[in-house]
What we know:
Order of helices and strands: EE
Radius of gyration: 20 Å
Strand content: 5-15%
Number of strands: 2
Helix content: under 10%
Distance between the termini: 69 Å
Largest sheet: 2 strands, antiparallel
Structural class: little secondary structure
Region (Disordered): 1-31
Oligomer: single chain
Amino acid sequence: MDYPDLFSPTPTPIHTPAPPGRGYTGGYAARPGTGPQGATCRQCQHYALVEGHIRWYRKCGLMKERWTHGKGSDIKARSPACAKFEAEIPELEVQP
């Protein structure tokens, strides 16, 4: 941890910056934005809403074996689609 230098003409940051990472959480099957232009995770057939204790959590079905009980495996519905995007199959209406 850096400590501020009170007598320096240029300020010293108090906290060191976070190390460079991959820029997205581990819940995505691939890097968001590598899929079809304009598509989002919400439009993918692998998008899943999982019920928790009190609320619902957004997950990628392709990553089910890595789901955790924390934010580490959550995704955002509005994230750009990844390379493993598959268009959601529309449900057919049954006519009586």
